[in-house]
User: Fold this.
Amino acid sequence: MLVPMRAILDAADKHDYAQGAFNVNAVCQAKAVIQVHEMFRSPAILQGADLANGFMGGRTDFMNATLEDKKKGAKNIADAVKKYGMDSPIPIALHLDHGKNFDSCVAAIEGGYTSVMIDGSSLPFEENVEITREVVKYAHARGVSVEGELGVLAGVEDHVFSADSTYTNPLSAIEFFKKTGVDALAISYGTMHGANKGKNAVIRKEIAIAIKECMRHEGIEGYLVSHGSSTVPQYIVDEINGLGGEITNAYGIDVNQLIEAGHCGIDKINVDTDIRLAVTRNMKELFAADKRLQTSASIGEIYELLEKNKSAFDPRVFLPPIMDTLMYGNVPDDDVARICKCVEDGVKEVVGTLIVKFGSYGMAPKVETVTLDEMAERYKKAGI
Assistant:
């Protein structure tokens, strides 16, 4: 069933494991994420980034997506999650990643999301507080969880870019929780967005430890989130390049550091790049193994885009020729079905691995199955 994200993070916090949160940009991705979590009896958090909603609204140049595109896309993603997850035996949250502004968060909530992030990290502290508090007021009245962000991660993810990191100050984090009533907080502690994190990226887990200790001291019941946490598996990068790709300087966060972070106060770990890489590798393998598909009437253009963009690994670059399939799950022929299988298998490979590594397997029964209406009533009683 669909639940507010807070319920899933509460279980992670109480039982000392980290919950992976995985970005999706297509109906078949959502299907695969839910299925692999069901297989491991794990709670699930699926994420649609702000511009992913634009893409799923039919805007292939998603960097220029309008609010209307995002509204349409949010509903498409939510419909897919409801289709495969509403009667699922595991608790599932659908979360907006990097909501750009209040309107983007409202669009996601109206579309069917059970959790949203408002990213005010580039703003001065008080302005960040103000916009986050505004989103919290709107979302909590509807039982929807809210994630904020404090501190700046270096790297690139869609419209989010920074050349340098600014670590999160633990005392500022406490003030932010108190002033906003936010459920979860994404912190900057050494991770980076994108695939170019550097060979020896080091997580400053002491920052997470300090924030969690201060939260306990102040009686704050909230959760910490790790963004920019893709592991960028080198074997997948090597396989892509062995198939003609030209990906360079691609390094992620060592998974052992993330596992340790999960025992040091981090409750949610965001992963996107790993899935992109696995899906890209699978498509390249498919076209290499069956050359007939390179000129297929329905998916031949995907091959052409793969060949044209050898350094790219974001499936949104390659998959616009089958937008109807991505947006609505329609599969018109066997060739498109084979591409969907590439996507689904890539998702399952990455997500299944990290479910085990992060420790959420078997934890679905630990999550309270609370509805949005019930959570809204709790927020009301708590005055947040």
